[in-house]
């Protein structure tokens, strides 16, 4: 096995280099699932300029590109601050987690109610 100092004169042949670059390009374009990810990602084709289409602002779909960096190095990484489609509000769940009865049941909840009562809040909880 050669060390890095000894192998500086050795180089891969152009055909091997070309074949490796083509296989890397195919792997980068390939997707393995049709399910939308919970954390949105940018695909490499999102950076290619497309023909401009005029769409009214109320009918325009949400676009991830203006909200995050469009640097090519971030093309396959996860977007940490992009919009998500996971929130579905429910009043029952909100009242179960933060409601008056759930505050009464625990010691910290009773302390929260007492603190809000001492500040004369108009609503103590949900």
What is the overall shape?
elongated
Can you summarize the main beta sheet? none
Q: What is the SS-derived class?
A: mainly alpha
Q: What is the chain-wise order of helices and strands?
A: HHHH
Report the count of strand segments: 0
Strand content: under 5%
Distance between the termini: 70 Å
**Computed CA radius of gyration, to the nearest angstrom:** 27 Å
Polypeptide structure, described:
The protein is mainly alpha-helical. The chain has helices at residues 14-29, 91-98, 100-105, 107-118. The protein has a domain at 92-118. The protein has 4 helices and no strands. It is elongated and about 75 Å long. One of its GO terms (biological process) is translation. It comes from Botrytis elliptica.
Short synopsis of the structure:
The protein is an all-alpha fold.
């Amino acid at each position: 096995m050669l060390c890095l100092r000894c192998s500086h004169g050795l180089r891969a042949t152009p055909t091997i280099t070309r074949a490796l670059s083509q296989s890397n390009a195919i792997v980068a374009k390939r997707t393995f699932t049709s399910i939308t990810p919970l954390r949105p990602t940018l695909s490499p084709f999102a950076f290619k300029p497309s023909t401009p289409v005029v769409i009214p602002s109320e009918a325009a779909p949400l676009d991830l590109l203006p909200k995050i960096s469009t640097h090519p190095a971030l093309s396959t990484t996860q977007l940490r601050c992009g919009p998500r489609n996971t929130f579905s509000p429910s009043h029952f769940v909100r009242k179960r987690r933060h409601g008056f009865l759930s505050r009464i049941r625990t010691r910290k909840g009773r302390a929260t109610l007492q603190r809000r009562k001492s500040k004369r809040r108009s609503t103590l909880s949900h």
